Amino acid sequence: MLVGIRDGRFFLGTFHCIDKQGNIILQDAVEYRSTRRSSPSPMEQRCLQSDSDP
Predict the structure, then answer these.
(1) Which of 31, 5, 4, 27 shows the shortest CA–CA distance to 16?
(2) Within 13 Å and on the Cβ side, how many CA atoms surround 23?
(3) What DSSP letter does each residue of 11-48 carry, written as one string?
(4) InterPro entries in the record, alphabetically (predicted)?
(5) For the chain, which residues make up each domain, given as ranges?
(6) Over its length of 54 residues, how does the chain's per-residue pLDDT go in tens digits?
């Protein structure tokens, strides 16, 4: 699933669930963001990790 947010970042990961507050929870997500304002803009990526109890 690809999720974009208002500040220009987007997250690519596997959909896990939606929590009680309505937040989308992704597994194995990678964050992408533009490193420059000009177009075409190179992208920076970062892997995200979370710990959860089964």
Answers:
(1) 27
(2) 4
(3) EEEEEEEE-TT--EEEEEEEEEEES-SSSSPPEEEEE-
(4) LSM_dom_sf, Sm_dom_euk/arc, snRNP_SmB/NAA38-like
(5) 2-47
(6) 999 999 888 999 999 999 999 999 999 999 998 765 555 556 677 766 665 544
